[in-house]
């Protein structure tokens, strides 16, 4: 009797162990490489999903949705009854996949995995200027004070690997050996310009090395370095007399007056926002004439007034 009980116990433990092993999971070469529980396609390439060895298999798919919970139905994939399943980036992006298996009297389904499109964005460039050192000329062109610098950054550094930076518009991408527009030795996701040129980049995605993008000539930035008038206004502290002119009314919504009767005329008046961008300029200004600032965006401004003797006065005012 004791021997029979031991045999039954061993048989029971064996059956329990078989059921415990009926626990399918899905594997594939790119599963989890970029994001957990996801297969990320580069383009329309194929990917093979597989599971452990069982008696039978049936693969299912469910369309992704942004809604929670996902109420889209799971549908059996016709003919998908083997240990592996091949999916492709053209037809199977944004679908979940799972497999239902049987082994003896055991039936179980795997956790779902998702086939996603490449975590992708078109290249974009961020330009950082030092306040008071530049003038925006429009259409992507700027005058930059000599000695200043401008930093360019790829907006999506996590997506792109090695970069090729240009100082002029190349004849055609991808970059070719000896192209005079290429800035040699610069391969990172940022570049700091200190000389004149037309700047942009070409880069390949880090996850998909064969997927490369050109910034596009319409997004290149043109910089002209030199000693421009706004640079003199911003740096000539020797001639600048702070807050010595009367500014009224302050704050103002429309008209602004500067100076007093004894000042008579000003050769030039420049209004700049707090980033150093010129917002308004006026020549041969008389103290009694109003300056119409109604078109300025509400905020804080600096007004630089140059008299006929070459003195520059700096005041702040608030546009309501």
TrEMBL record:
Domain of life (superkingdom): Bacteria
Transport recorded as keyword: no
Domain Secretion system C-terminal sorting: from-to ranges: 247-318
Signal sequence interval, chain numbering: 1-20
Any matching Pfam family: Por_Secre_tail
Protein keywords: Signal
Protein name, per record: Por secretion system C-terminal sorting domain-containing protein
Source organism (scientific name): Chryseobacterium oleae
């Amino acid at each position: 009797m004791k021997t029979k009980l031991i045999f039954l116990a061993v048989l029971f433990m064996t059956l329990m162990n078989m059921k415990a092993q009926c626990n399918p999971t899905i594997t594939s070469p790119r599963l989890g490489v970029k994001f957990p529980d996801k297969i990320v396609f580069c383009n329309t390439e194929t990917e093979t999903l597989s599971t452990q060895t069982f008696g039978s298999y049936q693969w299912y798919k469910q369309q992704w949705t942004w809604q929670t919970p996902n109420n889209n139905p799971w549908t059996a994939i016709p003919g998908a009854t083997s240990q592996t399943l091949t999916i492709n980036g053209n037809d199977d992006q944004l679908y979940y996949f799972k497999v239902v298996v049987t082994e003896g009297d055991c039936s179980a389904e795997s956790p779902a995995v998702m086939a996603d499109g490449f975590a992708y964005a078109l290249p974009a460039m961020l330009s950082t200027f030092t306040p008071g050192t530049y003038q925006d000329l429009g259409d992507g062109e700027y005058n930059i004070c000599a000695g200043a610098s401008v930093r360019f950054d790829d907006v999506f550094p996590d997506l792109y690997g090695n970069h090729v930076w240009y100082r002029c518009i190349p004849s055609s991408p991808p970059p070719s050996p000896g192209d005079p527009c290429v800035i040699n030795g610069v391969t990172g996701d940022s570049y700091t310009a200190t000389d004149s040129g037309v700047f942009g980049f070409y880069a390949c995605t880090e996850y998909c090395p064969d997927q490369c993008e050109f910034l596009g000539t319409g997004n290149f930035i043109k910089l002209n370095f030199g000693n421009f008038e706004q640079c003199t206004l911003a740096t000539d502290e020797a001639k600048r007399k702070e807050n010595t002119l009367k500014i009224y009314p302050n704050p103002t919504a429309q008209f602004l007056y500067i100076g007093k009767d004894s000042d008579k005329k000003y050769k030039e008046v420049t209004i700049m926002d707090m980033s150093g961008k010129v917002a308004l300029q006026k020549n041969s200004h008389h103290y009694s004439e109003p300056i119409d600032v109604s078109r300025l965006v509400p905020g804080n401004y600096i007004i630089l007034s140059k008299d006929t003797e070459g003195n520059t006065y700096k005041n702040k005012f608030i546009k309501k």
